[in-house]
Write a structure and sequence with these properties.
- With 266 residues, the protein is mostly beta strands.
- It folds into two domains: 113 residues, Immunoglobulins (Immunoglobulin-like, Sandwich); 114 residues, Immunoglobulins (Immunoglobulin-like, Sandwich).
- The chain contains one helix and 16 strands.
- The strands form four sheets. It has a five-stranded mixed beta sheet, with no helix packed on it.
């Protein structure tokens, strides 16, 4: 009988602990960012003074509207994320307002070298006393370096390819900011009937040493991009026109080069 009583008491004690935990959990809607503006959203690196470490001070001003329904917001956090989602700068702002909606404005700043410039995203969150956030605000911000356009030095396509053979295209690129600045090399293919192939979308080329099945590349990272594919039997016969481009990571685009290949019977 005593063992039964002890077991019952243990169950009741566990249940009461569970009830206390439930009572202590935060209830209601967490504060959220409902409007968000950044100014400026584009900064030109070349117009800023540099310090002795060749860094420029980059500053993004922001203004956000915070909505609080149940618990009040206690903190707004501004965070700058790089292209990989990593935090490169953060600022935490203490706030206090009894209004259902209120505005918080501030500036997030950091020092950058030119080599550290990439696409960034500014993210704002409002947190209650339990560290909860109901929704954030996000904005793409741009730091533009003194940027040179990439150059297409050459493009090569075979004069003639038979049905069933492999078509190999090559393009050599250069960039005064370094080959690492090249984001993509691609071409558009126009068929003999005047229509664009691949539903009008660009066809990517590769400088990966032959990793991609459509690569045909010999040496990775040498600035020579390739595309290799077997010509299927359903391909239209006649002259295909290829228009090549290079684009860097800041969306600067090269002039085009045009080459042609005639597809013939096997």
């Amino acid at each position: 009988m005593k063992r039964t009583l002890v077991a019952v008491l243990a169950i009741l004690f566990a249940a009461s602990c569970g009830d206390d935990k439930t009572l202590n959990e935060p209830q209601g809607i967490a504060p959220e960012i409902v409007a968000f503006q950044v100014s400026p959203d584009t900064i030109f690196f070349g117009q800023l003074p540099l310090d002795e470490q060749a860094r420029a001070r980059i500053a993004f001003g922001f203004s956000a509207t915070v909505r609080q329904v149940d618990l009040q917001a206690e903190q707004v956090r501004a965070e700058l994320l790089n292209a990989r989602g990593e935090s490169v700068a953060m600022k935490e702002i203490s706030v206090s307002s009894s209004e259902r909606q209120f505005v918080v404005s501030d500036t997030l700043a950091l020092f950058l070298r030119r080599s550290e410039i990439e696409p960034f995203t500014l993210v704002l969150n409002a947190f209650d006393e339990f560290g909860r956030s109901g929704g954030n605000g996000r904005a793409r911000v741009v730091v533009r370096p003194p940027n040179a356009r990439p150059q297409l030095l050459s493009a090569v396509s075979p004069d003639t390819v038979r049905i069933g053979e492999f078509l190999v295209l090559k393009a050599t690129v250069s960039d005064s900011d370094g080959l690492g600045d090249i984001a993509s090399v691609f071409y558009f293919s126009r068929r003999p009937d005047g229509m664009l192939a691949n539903q009008g979308n660009p066809i990517q080329m590769y400088d990966d040493g032959g990793v991609n099945p459509f690569s045909g590349d010999d040496i990775a990272g040498d600035g020579i991009y390739s595309f290799r594919a077997q010509v299927p039997p359903t391909t239209l016969l006649g002259t295909f026109t290829y228009t090549f481009y290079a684009r860097d990571r800041f969306d600067a685009q090269s002039d085009s080069l045009v080459r042609q290949t005639v597809i013939v019977q096997p």
